[in-house]
Write a structure and sequence with these properties.
Chain A has a domain of about 70 residues. Chain A starts with a strand and ends with a helix. In chain A, about 40% of the residues lie in helices and about 25% in strands. Chain A contains nine helices and ten strands. The relative contact order of chain A is 0.17. With about 210 residues, chain B is an all-alpha fold. Chain B has one domain: MetI-like fold (Orthogonal Bundle). Helix content of chain B is about 80%, strand content about 0%. Chain B contains eight helices and no strands. Chain B is flat. Classes of the chains: A alpha/beta (about 250), B mainly alpha (about 210). At the A-B interface, helix 2, strand 6, helix 3 and helix 5 of A face helix 5 and helix 6 of B.
Chain lengths: ~250, ~210
């Protein structure tokens, strides 16, 4: 589903991603944990091309969407392929990034109408159905500034889902929320997990990650230090660094 | 009383030129300013530099000088004008578009980059992102500086008096010189105040209209 081969990225002299290799299967749920500055968000952003990579290959369902610019060993990157590949993914940000000048309903409709060419009616029906699913039917005519952080994030998830993605990327979806609002957002993500949506989630919510993930990646200094099933990583990690990290976070 | 009335009427005749120049400048300088703003922030270095050169010249020299240059200077270089209105309009459009370029640019660049990222992961291209997401939000932010320009433009139209366009101030001055009275100045001032008040009110309305979000 997602194929990441030898992906590296530098910010100046700093290696934010250092030869990352990762395959994500259909329906697999992966949580990425690790200290800040480990490259977790950068990895996610590289998968969806918000960051360009300096080396390596990213493929989504066999569609090559990124590779080193001067590669000459195989086929060059094709714009249509990139667009197709990117369209298979939806992303949710830490800061929501809702469109403030549009109502909740319009936020969920806009890309459907202008990117997917759906009619207003079709887009509206779809938007309403998804908003109902995330429990926000009563907020569809509100503006983002009029709703809570948890509601905003649920709208952001609905907005991404309206584009029928095969893969959802979550970049610290609850980090900007008040503690009492975290649950409602995690609840929506859990519901997606039950539908076996393929997901990559960068999170600091350890209990949540342990509960829903098929695999946990621990990252530090731009590398995947260890990856494995949640019970292994949380209970019996091979790497001592993970133990200290978890002790610090969970205490 | 009757005389006052006829004076006012004469001065008001000049408002046709004033309003005409105002309208034509507003209508053309806004799209031009927006296009130049997009050019200035584009990755194309040549385009961006060209726009910078343009705003540097037009914001850095007096409007009056630009007016003289278009009206008296360009004919020397072989461009003939049939009257003073066209060169006045051209100068005003280019001058105001230069200021609007900077206002639009600042407005566009003040939008959080998360908005571009959200649009991008939803599959929107550059033009869709600009038209549907960025520019609508920009409008709200630039209304206050835009209002300033709109008021300044009313007063700047008085400059065309120097190239013999019979606008409000020129008509007033004509009566002052001919009849040795200063009432026409007061009448002209009152007309300008009415015009600028209408603009201030219009912008207040627009700001209210856009206050529906954040």
């Amino acid at each position: 589903m997602i194929e990441i081969k030898d992906v590296s990225k530098n910010f100046g002299p700093l290696k934010v991603l250092d030869k990352i290799n990762l395959q994500v299967d259909r329906g697999e749920i992966i949580s990425i944990i690790g200290p800040s500055g480990a490259g977790k968000s950068t990895l996610l952003r590289s998968v969806i091309q918000l960051e360009s990579i300096d080396d390596g290959i990213v493929e989504i369902e066999g569609l090559r969407i990124a590779c080193r610019k001067d590669r000459d060993d195989d086929e060059p990157i094709d714009k249509t392929t990139v667009r197709e590949g990117l369209a298979k993914m939806g992303m949710v940000f830490q800061g929501f990034n809702l469109f403030p000048h549009m109502t909740v309903l319009e936020n969920v409709m806009i890309a459907q109408t202008i990117v997917k060419d759906r009619s207003q009616k079709e887009a509206q029906e779809k938007a309403k159905a998804i908003l109902n699913k995330v429990g926000l039917t009563d907020k569809e005519n509100s503006y983002p500034s009029q709703i809570s952080g948890g509601q905003k994030q649920r709208v952001a998830i609905a907005r991404a889902l309206a584009m029928d993605p095969d893969i959802m990327l979550f970049d610290e979806p609850t980090s900007a929320l008040d503690p009492e609002l975290i649950g409602e957002v995690l609840g929506v993500i859990k519901a997606l997990a039950q539908e076996r949506m393929t997901m990559m989630i960068v999170t600091h919510e350890m209990n949540f990650a342990r509960e829903i993930s098929d695999r946990i990646l621990f990252m530090e200094d731009g590398r995947i230090v260890e990856s494995g099933p949640p019970d292994k990583i949380f209970v019996n990690p091979e790497h001592p660094r993970i133990r200290t990290f978890l002790d610090k976070i969970l205490s | 009383m009757e005389k006052l009335f006829s004076i006012t009427l004469y001065i008001l005749k000049g408002s046709g030129v004033t309003l005409g120049l105002y309208a034509i400048t507003a209508v053309f300088s806004m799209p031009l300013g927006l296009m130049c703003a997009l050019g200035k922030i584009s990755k194309n270095k040549v385009l961006s530099k060209a726009v910078s050169l343009y705003t540097w010249v037009f914001r850095g020299t007096p409007l009056l000088l630009q007016l003289f240059f278009t009206y008296y200077g360009l004919p020397v270089l072989g461009i003939r004008w049939s009257g003073p209105f066209a060169p006045a309009a051209l100068t005003f459009i280019l001058n105001y578009a230069a200021y609007l370029t900077e206002i639009f640019r600042a407005g566009i660049q003040s939008i959080d980059k998360g908005q571009y990222e959200a649009a991008k992961v939803l599959g929107m291209n550059y033009s869709q992102t600009m038209r549907k997401i960025i520019i609508p939000q920009t409008v709200k932010r630039i209304l206050p500086p835009l209002g300033n320009e709109a008021i300044t433009l009313v007063k700047d139209t008085a400059l065309v008096a120097v190239i013999a366009l019979a606008e409000i101030l020129r008509n007033a001055k004509e009566i002052v010189t001919r009849e040795f009275i200063i009432t026409p100045f007061f009448i002209a001032a009152a007309i300008y105040l009415v015009l600028t008040s209408v603009i201030v009110l219009t912008f207040n309305r627009m700001e209210e209209k856009y206050s529906y979000y954040e």
